[in-house]
Amino acid sequence: MATRTVETTIAAAPTTTAKSKFSWTPYLFILPHLIFFGAFVCWPFINGIFISLQRYDYLRPQQNEFIGLSNYVDLFAPGTLTFNEFWDSLKNTAIFVIISVPPLVVIPLLLAVLLNGKIPGRNLFRGIYFAPWVLSVSVVGLLWWWIFQSSGGLLNYYIKDFGFDPPRWLSSLPWAWISILIATVWWTIGFNMIILLAALQDIPEQIYEATSIDGANKLQTFFQITLPMLRPVLLFVVTITIIASFNLFGQPFLMTGGGPPQANGTLATTPVMYRIYIQGFVRPLQGSAAAMSFVVAAIMVLVSYFNFKIFRQREDQ
Amino acid sequence: MAVTTATPNTEVRKDDPNQGRLLRKILGLLPAYILMVFIAALIILPLLWMLSTSLKPKSQWFTQSIEWIPRTFTLENYQKLFDNPATPIGNWFFNSVSIALITTFLVLAIDSLAAYAYARMDFPGRKALFALMLLTLFLPGMMFLVPNFLTIANLHLLNSWGGVILPGLAGVFGVFFLRQFFEGIPKELEEAASIDGANRFQVFYMVVLPLAKPALATLGILTFLGSWNDFLWPLLVLRDPKLQTLPPGLRTLQGAYSSEYGLMLAGAVIVAVPVLLIYIVLQRYIVQSVAATGLKG
């Protein structure tokens, strides 16, 4: 991977035949993309700041009012409804990140190792494991919502068949989280598996040959050679998995509706992205939703930054 | 098998007789195979059951024993879906195909132009713009949801294809992806064309683009999949049921037929089958592109 980066930086040196003369040509090339990038990435960022400083309801624009940092203060003032809802949803996001990242890294790693051997039919298995990734979240959500239905669901049929009393998967804890987790694992393990498999195939054959001569068994080879060699890619995979899990929205939206409701009035599987959606599109509180978005983005950038730092540190060692 | 006996296998110790080696190899692979088949079954069975139930008459959706193959095949669930004006799935299908195709075409055109300039031209502001684009990769998409929705509303693009398509053209992934590929194309080819009197656009259009077909195909597939599967944005922008695309349409089905599972699943099959077919045909490219994005990151 290091060599590839070097190659690209060299290739990146631009070649202009007329460096001295200013030309509009490059700007004409980038203009179409720049217009959309400006309108739907840069402008919403700036506009988002303005909106977050207002009591904002797009259906009643005449009532919009500049309120300074109030929307942010609400998020950090204990006791307000917004505070409770926001931090509770952030807690739910954290729960999902913690329960989902280990299986979403370990299972793909196991699959990648299995597929890395010279086994006949490996392309078929690889193709099957990756397939759910091409589906829409709406298909995945509907499919697993139906499987976890208490009545008529495939799962509960088999559970009853074995003589157990099946739980109410989607409307009780911890089962609602487990259902969302199973659906997510089923949907996305193929993606990490492909990245890890590519990294495994990059490990030079000679390294394995050297250890097999030393008489190391497969398990020893895995922990002493494979895992350390995979470390940079593993950290990359962990980082993107944390970010993906942080963005959880569609699965609870479609499967549990954010529930079940808790005794203290909060919703047990409403992650922070769902909370922003409710605030901005179910309630007329776009200002508050925008403020939440900025706080969440700051948290995510921090998380990515720390991950990146760890990633760099390990690589330097 | 003949090959195995002919070439000495370095992995196995030399004093092993050939037959034992083969047997051992098979036995050694057996646990791995069992595990792999088991996981493959877990992946496939939910999809198969979805398909099978969508083809069963209502009386057989809930049966005493699980029947993987319907006793009586029927298309009545699909028929009902298409006949119900409250769930115009034919319209949704048409909208999904059109939006995905238009988005894919525009993304390819816009991103390849920009990527070529960033790869091969030097101009004031190039580095700053590139750094800005890179920064935005770290921001969560949810941040843009409210302000972009307001922009689309102010432009009077709610309930229109434009409202769904336009924000999708702002992405930076395609620009990075194509730029990387363009940089790998030998410059001599472009220089030869310029000497022959072609201008920058002609060089781009007649020399670079044809050489970049694999990269354009990869980006095209990924863009099409992303657009076809997009759920939240069309749900927000396309409020009129007739104008919806398939993924938010599925949610409408979920609400409209509270326990008519066969109908909902028929809808899910209609959304899933086109992408699964694309996947089966183009599996190699899709898998490779994912592996490549991972390694570049």
Written overview of the protein:
The complex is a heterodimer of chains A (317) and B (297). Helices cover 71% and strands 1% of the residues of chain A. In chain A, helix 4 crosses helix 8 and helix 12 (272-282) packs antiparallel against helix 13 (286-316). Chain A is built from 13 helices and two strands; from the N terminus they run H-H-E-E-H-H-H-H-H-H-H-H-H-H-H. Chain A has helices at residues 2-12, 25-52, 70-76, 81-116, 122-130, 137-147, 154-161, 175-202, 205-213, 218-246, 250-255, 272-282, 286-316, and strands at 54-55, 65-66. In chain A, strands 1-2 form a two-stranded antiparallel sheet. The model of chain A is unreliable at 1-19 (pLDDT under 50). Chain A is mainly alpha-helical. By secondary structure, chain B is mainly alpha-helical. Chain B has helices at 2-6, 18-54, 76-83, 89-120, 126-136, 142-154, 161-168, 173-183, 187-195, 200-211, 213-229, 232-237, 246-256, 261-296. The longest helix of chain B has 37 residues, at 18-54. The radius of gyration of chain B is 26 Å and the shape is globular. The two termini of chain B are 41 Å apart. The relative contact order of chain B is 0.11.
